[in-house]
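Lecture 7 notes: from sequence to structure.
We start with the chain below.
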Amino acid sequence: MSSAEGNIDMDAKHSLSAFIRKRGLSIEEAVHLLRDESSQDTRPNKALNPQCLGHLLEGYPHLSVLQEIALHGIKPNWFKSSQPRQSKSAINHRSFVRHLSAALKSIRDGQVQGKFLVVDADLLERWSSVHCSPFGAVEKSDVDPDTEVRVIHDLSFPAGFSTNDNLDKDCLPDINYEYVIVLAIRIEFLVKKFPNCIIRILKGDVKGAFRHLMTHAQHVRWMAGLIRERNALVIDLAAPFGWSGSPKFYAAFGRAISWLVAQNSPASVADSDDTTPFFAYEWVDDHILIEVDIENRLELAEATLRHAMLAILGPRSINEAKFSGWSTRLKALGLVWDTVHRTLSIPEDKIDKGIARIDDLLTRGLATKNDLEKIIGSLRYITLCLRSAKPFFQNLQFAMLRWPRFGQGQLQQQIIDDLKWFRYILNDGHLAELPLRMFGSMPQPDCHLYMDASDLGLAVLNPGRKEFIRLQFDTEEQTRISNGQFSINVREHLCMALALWTWSQHWESIASNRVTHVRFWSDNASAVAWCNKLSSLCTTSQEINRAIGLGEAVFNIRISAAHLPGSTNTMADAASRSWIEPYSTTCPSGLEKSLQDILYQLQAKSLAASSSAKYSSTWKQWVHWCQRMQLQPWLPEDRAQHSYQLALFAVFCWKFGFGNTGRGNSASTILSKICHISWHHPCQLGFNVGLLPGHNSPSPE
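Predicted structure tokens for the same chain:
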């Protein structure tokens, strides 16, 4: 057998095994030898320098974790001091066997780099405390799996006795990744702060990530596996992919890189007056910079990121192949970010891959755990773009965690329903060019709807279109209400889905390429919470959320709900009870007008008495000015047209003002008046008005 056979260095394997037998080395002694560890230099990775880290990262909250790992390696805490090896259970996954050649090549690379200790399998008899777990393999994106795969160590097997089960999670660094909406917020912030400048984004990548962190020699016995095809015992010396401790321990290093970048500014790294700190974000081994293109800020930010990677993780830490240049449109973290149009998109190839995987599972009706893991990977991005997808995504995650580790399982009906729902979202939903302003805190609503339900029926008012929905429950529904099977909370929640699918096509047509935010007002706190939190134990409510989520995706709409005090919610009497006395006789034919009058009163109640007087006074001034200018006081929905009219009014107020003083208004007063005028439009017309950025410059005092 040649040394290159199977891509494992067999000569090195045999020689090292013979040396271990001859010297009677323990596993700890063999690891010390392989990594050149001594009492003078205990560092398992010579590229990590604890003294250098202490100097660079003074003040970093997790500095002690980094220095300890650099000096001795990762030293986890375990619930059990020893665990017999699971030799019969250490059969490798079919994914590893299927891609055996590429997997062995990966292990050989680690063998050469000192990341894997590869010896003869019979050394298990000598090292009886070694715990063996199965190997698996996953495909890398844009790489032929016949030539390269990522080897995964399944350290969660067998359940209850695995390496991951025995890990004391309390020993892990307390670090959590920030959600990627931080990037959307950053872009929006820079656009508003620098409206006339270009915003650019850059992606950096750490090569090897977890593999820079070595495990202490006394703990590597938990990280072993067998390759029977090569009679090899493979012990992972670095933090493995598949160990539940790897992400947290590496996060301390990844966060340190971002922390160091954010501690600097152009003024601290070059001859510059710019003292604004750089922005840095990390997600595992991906690092994102978003900066305004002013002077040499971009160049200095990138250089700072590169220096931080090298200083913390060593000279082999930068993955040049995945280091992008500065761009206004970039694929990062699996999504396409556009800083010019301020949008976010899911790439078409990811959508197509997700559809293909769902179709395959639905056709077969069977799935392996690996199949579900791939589906989870394909659908993860939807939860960012569509908030209502999260609970259904979590259903699939929960099912995947409980799925049998080996073999195929029958898809349950709930899983089938969730997969079909995601299939509709992927095929028909708006998942491209989504405005960044919709991420993070929701912007002001574009449309307000008012709703209520009773034991007789439900009603939803849409003042913008001067329309309403009034639905009387039939005999079957009223029977279910009497039996407690159709609760008031569900009925109120149903109003939202009904209104969304009734008026959504209108909102889609007027919104063009932007997302419309619709606000529902209800006096039912549970329905409001079910809508906003997307969480309910009620199965009917879960199905209503499913209908709402599909409508949001298909019609490019996002909804939210707010509570309206019951004392002001008189439309319940006027609409949802209009089939009985006294409501049936008070507004039989003029119901719409009566409801609209009540609605306007409800909207007026949202203002304090003092504010209401100011808003009313400004509106009178506005109407008077529009009459003099022969303009309509109710502005058109076209943003350019109504912004121009508001700008003319602002100039008039600055120059002449109103009243007998003969003096113009201040800039703050003018902006307040614009807000007062804008408030009346969503109340009556259902859409917002305001000044375009070019018209929104402060008036001179």
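Points to note: The chain has a mean pLDDT of 87. Residues 464 and 574 are 19 Å apart (CA to CA).
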